[in-house]
Specification:
mainly alpha, elongated
């Protein structure tokens, strides 16, 4: 029961919280990423995941962290997004990391295009919206990429072996 709660409730809940937080504040808190990492290890322990499999998950997460911090260094990816990406890949493992990355790129491209169009629309003015929406529509801020990362996570979630086991597939 604890395992099912962690996999079906807590992990997706934290991922959706990251999207919501990023949309409203343009940040993904470090404590959220740390919670995802800690909960992965708790879930792996409760599930009896072999040490070698845990190692592959850690290696995939480390590779994701290296790749996204290279993007961060180039100024095209946020630091919170990089940490969040690695935390999610830790859960997904190497078998789903590439699909997750491709979907995140597609969803991120669509999100970016949508925001560019909204930000350039002459009929949209930030004064009609709340503070967070005004900031989101400002061309002076970046894209809350956590939304795209969370959408990609939700898209691959049903393919996670843990998820399939929890729902009885």
């Amino acid at each position: 029961v604890v395992l099912d709660v962690l996999i079906l409730g807590v992990f997706p809940g934290l991922v959706l919280l990251a999207a919501t937080t990023d949309m409203f504040t343009m940040t993904i808190p470090n404590r959220l990423c740390l919670a995802l990492v800690a909960l992965f290890f708790l879930t792996a322990f409760v599930a009896g995941m072999p040490i070698a499999t845990i190692g592959w998950h850690v290696a995939a997460a480390f590779g994701a962290l290296l790749a996204t911090f290279a993007l961060f260094s180039a100024g095209v990816y946020g630091g919170g997004d990089a940490k969040f990406t690695a935390a999610v890949v830790l859960w997904l493992g190497p078998s789903l990391a590439l699909e997750f990355a491709l979907l995140a790129a597609l969803f991120g491209g669509a999100l970016t295009l949508g925001l560019v169009l909204l930000r350039s629309a002459p009929t949209i003015t930030a004064s009609f919206y709340s503070h967070w929406a005004a900031r989101l529509l400002s061309s002076e801020v970046g894209v809350p990429y956590g939304i795209a990362l969370s959408a990609a996570t939700m898209a691959v979630l049903p393919k996670m072996p843990w998820f399939q086991a929890a729902i009885g597939f």
